[in-house]
Amino acid sequence: MMATPADLEAFALGFALSEGLIDTPADCRGIEVFARNAPQGGGGGGGTACEVHLDIAPRCFARLKERRRALAGRTGCGLCGIDSLQALDLVPERVTPRPWATGLPAATVLRAVSAMPALQVMNAAAGALHAAAWA
To answer: What are φ and ψ of residue 47, in 5° steps?
Structure first.
């Protein structure tokens, strides 16, 4: 996944939740961020890259092993991991509804979304960064 190096722990937890790798935040037992030297070539310009490792509950890990695959994030803008714009999937697969979402009032979601701009410090400075939130 492509991300800024800020708030990687929150990014990883949100990704694991939204992709159904874990069911609740409590299923994540630990998060570690490692800086690595990025390889030259293949689209990478060298420099430093980050890896985020999650320690997840055994039942979630067993489920993850059963469906082991390369994971291109469905929850991003859709551009990460594609070779060209022609490969952009304009009809993504439908997300499985989560039981907790059915009782979530629209006003609660709208209130959370309206609170985001004030918290997007990097977007205010650069004007071109995506944000995600857990409310």
So the answer is: 85, -155
Name the residues annotated as catalytic. Answer: 77
* CA distance to 111, 117, 129, per residue, from 105 (Å): 10, 21, 27
Report the chain's C-alpha Rg in angstroms.
17
Encode burial over 67-106: b for 16+ CB neighbours within 10 A, e otherwise.
Answer: eeeeeeeeebeeeeeeeeeeeeeeeeeeeeeeeeeeeeee
pLDDT value at position 31? Answer: 96
User: What phi and psi, each to the nearest 5 degrees, are found at residue 71?
Assistant: -110, 95
Residue-wise pLDDT tens digits, 32-91: 999 887 665 555 555 677 889 999 999 999 988 877 655 555 555 655 555 556 666 677
The amino acid at residue 97 is: P
